[in-house]
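Its record is quoted verbatim for completeness.
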Amino acid sequence: MKSYHVNLGAGIAGLVMKEHAILVPGPHEVLVRVRACSLNYRELLILITGSYPLPVKPDGVPVSDGAGEVVAVGEGVCSVRVGDRVTGNVFAHWTDGPFTWETAAQLGGSLDGMLTEYALLPEEGVVPIPAHLSFEEAATLPCAGVTAWNALTRGRTLQAGDTVLTLGSGGVSLFALQFAKLFGARVIATTSSEEKAERLKALGADAVVNYRTHPTWSDAVRELTAGRGVDQVVEVGGPSTLAESIKSTGFEGEVAIVGSIATGSSTPLDVYGTAWAGVVTLRSVALGSRAQFLAMNRAITVNRLKPVIDHVFPFEEAKAAYRYYQEAQPFGKVIISQS
């Protein structure tokens, strides 16, 4: 079998393919023939900047998100069968409940990830794929999809008629837009161009604010909500956008702050004063559990939702996929396929 291997901060040139024997599942483990992976911002933090906040094993297999079919199971496995189509759960041992350090081991970090031909995963660390999705589509779900679902559902209860604000056109933001519409919410999105604005509207955005022409875009959001502000914000921009997100939020609204994306700015911000003035709740989001993944998949299945894919690269061109993801500002997910 072939796998890519990386070390923290090694750069794209440090992404190396190696060959080794096919893995054999032990008790309560399953072997998955990986058919597709998708890239997330965390992959750049690990490989390019070396600043990922959670442990990363030396010479590990990268990429948290992947989908494939089960080809072998170990002793005692009862919930998964050979032939099942599955994705890996990024936090492989976080089945339900609150996030804890004991459940923080993650694929493509302290555990080997999915940029490989075969992945060995714990039985509780795999999730069935919705039947209408391809392997490439399913590979988009584990990180960006579950994060967006957690951002919208685990804190304040999202209800039909609420207004949600999403930022930009990255994977988490596009899933948040799609999921919010499933709940019957109104969605306001921000973006940097008219071309992207039209694509966001085609996905269901009710209004789009260009943050280049409206640098204080909270004013535009307030105007679009008759001065009231939005009920929820999925915040992916970090300190450089957090003040505007809080100012866009109505009384007793919530700003869900997505973890590793919300980094990299030294912009001064009086979080306490800005949030207190609007009675706004700030909640950090650390991806999500297997239970949340299953709940999200039920909604995806019932509504026949399709993830947004920007570009697909073959397995042999993984370095090109990383470069494209880093440089192209993709609209949707970047996939590495073995199908």
User: Anything to note?
Assistant: Residues 290-303 form the longest helix (14 residues). The two ends are 15 Å apart (CA to CA).
